């Protein structure tokens, strides 16, 4: 099921693709599918790919919630209306390319083939973009691949920022007055920066 957004110079489709469909497409076309991707499959040696594999094997129904999805491009996309007013679906794609999400795609495929994983409960969110100007197709696809693969890295400390103890400490820092400086009667608050960038953003906001 898909919805499409048309903007100047391009059109984007926001959709969910079944893991079985993604795996079969990868089986048919292999590396041709990832020609615009900046990395080939890095196997299951890294922490991220092992985490993807573990979700596939142990909690496949949670894959849609845990995974960021894939960014794809195409030269042409055709849509059809689904029965009973269920929306629209993609019926045809020309020159389909995965520009971000090659690790996700290959991990689903290899888990299915090598580990006999049941991928029928796996769904992947997908952004599919078509470029209206053929002369700018290669350049724009290259930029999509570059920008989609250069997001701000999340550190371990970022991931721990939502722990209950840190949220409580943040609340205390906003509600408990700090003692005034010697010779000064003006009280202030402590500022506990639970999430990176909070202090700077709060200063700018005020």
Low-pLDDT regions? none
Mean pLDDT: 82
Helix count from the secondary structure assignment: 8
Measured as a percent range, the helix fraction is: 25-40%
Percent strand? 15-25%
Largest sheet: 5 strands, mixed
Beginning-to-end CA distance, first to last residue: 43 Å
Q: Could you spell the SSE succession in H and E letters?
A: EEHHHEEEEHEHHHEEH
Q: Briefly, what is this?
A:
The protein is an alpha+beta fold.
Describe this structure in words.
The protein has 206 residues and is of the alpha+beta class. It is built from eight helices and nine strands. It has helices spanning 19-29, 47-58, 63-66, 102-114, 137-148, 156-159, 164-175, 198-205, and strands at 2-7, 10-18, 70-74, 76-81, 88-94, 97-100, 123-131, 177-178, 188-189. It has a five-stranded mixed beta sheet. Strands 4-5 form a two-stranded antiparallel sheet.
List the helices and strands and how they pair.
Blueprint (H helix, E strand, L loop, with lengths): L1 E6 L2 E9 H11 L17 H12 L4 H4 L3 E5 L1 E6 L6 E7 L2 E4 L1 H13 L8 E9 L5 H12 L7 H4 L4 H12 L1 E2 L9 E2 L8 H8 L1
Parallel strand pairs: 3-7
Antiparallel strand pairs: 1-2, 2-7, 3-6, 4-5, 8-9
Helix pairs in contact: 1-4, 2-4
Keywords for this entry:
206 residues; alpha+beta
